Amino acid sequence: MSVVGRMTERLLRRGIVGFVALLLGITLFELVQPIIAKSLGGPQALGSLLQALPPAFQALVKTRPEFITVSGLAGYLTLGFTHPLFLVLIASAIIGFATRTLAGEMERGTIQLPLARPVSRLQVYAARVLGIAVESLVLAVAAPVGIMLGLQIAHPAGTVIYRYFVPTAITTALLAWAIGGLTLLGSAAANTSGRAVGWATGAFAVFYFVDYFASLWHPLKPLDPLSIFHYYNPAPALVHGTLSWSDVLVLLAVGAAGSLAGLAVFARRDLPT
Amino acid sequence: MSDGRRGVETAIATRGLTKRYGHVAALTDVTLTVPVGTIYGFLGPNGAGKTTTIRLLMGFIKPTAGTAGIFGHDTWRDGVAARQDLGFLVPADALYPDMSGQALLAYAARLSGRPPTLQAPLLKALEFPEEALGRRLGTYSKGMRQKLALVAAIQHDPALLILDEPTDGLDPLIQRRFEEFLRELNARGRTIFMSSHDLAEVERVCERVAVVRDGHLVAAETIAGLKRLHRRTASVTFAGPVPDAIAHVPHVALLARSAHRADLAIEGDLNPLLRFLATQQVSDFVLAPPRLEDIFLDFYGASANGRAEPEPAASGAAKS
Residue B311 — very low, low, confident or very high, per pLDDT cuts 50/70/90? Predict the structure, then answer.
């Protein structure tokens, strides 16, 4: 295995307990969605229920009652991918990894172990990027697995095409990748993991609320493209099996740009004492 | 030692090495050469610039001005090549606490890209209990972590070792064994650059020392050379009265005199005094052996007393 591969393995192993706990949380959260769908009485009832909620609540889960009424069970299940709790769980895992493995290691001094050897900063950084890519994929798979388990348990009315989970997982992985890239940039610039977590959490909240308020208040609509959540639309993926390639490219580019900018910062900076 | 090092005579070379943090100068214009095959001590009080120098050598921080090179490779611009044949002592509290000792040594060896040929003899010399290798580092005492950090730094038998306070936390017996290990490595051509607060240790182990104070290199000399140039004290008891001419002997200052005894300070060459005493009836002569600690305390003293520069011995050696 290459040096980068060994370092990635080490980084993933180190936070494995917390990561598995978050995976279980995501899986459980998604597992209950089909059960809830069945208990509420099908898509029509779900649409009516959502209709009764004020627009501010509807915007929280990025959906419309008509959409659920028309799209059926699959439409309802997209709520599991847009719910704030799901997004927080995904962000927690990725922000935790990106801050712990770079800013955290610089803060504790553990990053000296590879950097005191014939290992370049590029390799050290690449291991973090690879780790984020791996965690993004695993997180993205956890959600469909939870839903599929829930479908097997509850058997709610309606149909879900299982192969549509693939584009849905890709969308989720790309969101995690974008969050990870931006967090790596902050992590590369920070001297402590606490500061990096603060920056990343702040950016996550700003992105989320820009997207949220832009969907509620028309004058803010022009700001919406500035949020990464504007490009995160799992509903067409799960309902129709389609991906918006422009959204895919934007999320890919945001993650890559964040990672590259972070590399530029990390390669030039002093390690903290 | 790798073949790439053959023919290289300088292990470490810095030129005008300077590091500033804003308006604060941590290190100023340090020019230092560490020849291959030496054990080089690096001394200075806390905050003098030792750790900054070592971090610059490791490429952990970027010089504000000047250069630092290891085996001819710039440590900032060509860090991977500079660290190709290097062993660095990572601080004991900067090791992964969740790893076992064995896992950490294996990981360090993999990153070094060389087999850990010295692992077993080092573990033995440091009396590291074998059963502890399977335990997590978080359960280790400070001394055990320090031992493991030393093994991780040296196990791949590098041509150059950079050790910051290597015996910190080790008991005296293990400290002596480790010193012996370093001497054996040096006998096989390895270069060792070490900082230490234990001046007696530096005196026992090192051939040459550099002293930094307030971010400036104030001395870089062999220990023997420093001692030769250092002010020493002597006490002479004459059979008769103390001759007045003793006050005029080159390099000698009369500190105190009684009827038959003179207390002297000797700065530099001792031979004029010995030649003078050979012409006198001397009943006793006591020359206090110079100690590195005294020399070092002179540098400290110069700083504490607010003097601009230390002893003349240092200023001439600053650019070695």
Answer: very low
Residue A1 class from Cβ within 10 Å (0-12 exposed, 13-18 middle, 19+ buried)?
Answer: exposed
Under 8 Å CB-to-CB from A27, ≥6 apart: which residues? A142, A143, A145, A146, A149
Residue B111 has its nearest CB partner, among A108, A119, A268, at A119
At B159 the pLDDT is: 95
B107 neighbourhood in chain A, CB within 8 Å: 6, 10, 113
CA torsion B105-B107-B112-B116 (nearest 10°) is 40
DSSP structural state of residue B303:
H
Please report which residue ranges of B190-311 form alpha helices under DSSP H: 199-205, 223-229, 271-277, 292-304
| SS3 labels along A142-194 | HHHHHHHHHHHHHCCCCCCCHHHHHHHHHHHHHHHHHHHHHHHHHHHHCCCHH
In the predicted model, is pLDDT for residue A131 greater than 50?
Answer: yes
Task: Tell which wins on pLDDT, B67 or A64.
Answer: B67
The shortest CB-CB distance from B96 to any of A110, A116, A121 is to A110
A119–B55 C-beta distance less than 8 A: no
Query: How does pLDDT run across B62-72, given as a tens digit for each residue?
Result: 999 999 999 99
Indicate the SS3 state at residue B1: coil
| Amino acid letter, B20 | R
* Interacting residues of A47 by C-beta distance below 8 A, sequence separation 6+: A65, A66, A68, A69
- Mean pLDDT of the residues in chain A: 91
pLDDT-derived band at B320, boundaries 50, 70, 90: very low
SS3 A138: helix
Contact B86 A119 (CB under 8 A): no
Q: Which domains does chain B have, with CATH numbers?
A: 3-85+158-226 (3.40.50.300), 231-287 (3.30.70)
Question: Which parts of chain A fold into alpha helices (H)?
Answer: 3-14, 16-40, 42-52, 55-60, 65-77, 79-82, 84-98, 104-108, 112-115, 121-154, 165-189, 193-216, 234-240, 245-268
Q: Distance (Å, rounded) from C-alpha B56 to C-alpha A4?
A: 24
Cβ separation A112–B88 shorter than 8 A: yes
Is residue B317 within a helix (H) or strand (E), and if so which, with residue range?
helix B312-317
Look at residue A42 and give its three-state secondary structure.
helix
Q: What pLDDT score does B316 carry?
A: 32
* Cα A108 to Cα A101, A172, B51, distances in angstroms: 10, 32, 16
Tell me: pLDDT of A100 over 60. yes
Would you call A112 and B110 a contact, using CB atoms and an 8 Å cutoff? no
For B49-88, give one letter per residue: b (16+ CB within 10 A) or e: bbbbbbbbbbbbbebeebbbbbbbbebbeebebbbbbbbb
- Give me the amino acid identity at B212: V
Does the beta-carbon distance from A115 to B60 stay under 8 Å?
yes
State the average pLDDT for chain B: 87
Token pair listed for A190: 């920070």
* A144 vs B168: CA distance, rounded Å: 53
Which has more confidence, A25 or A76? A25
Percent of chain A with pLDDT over 90: 74
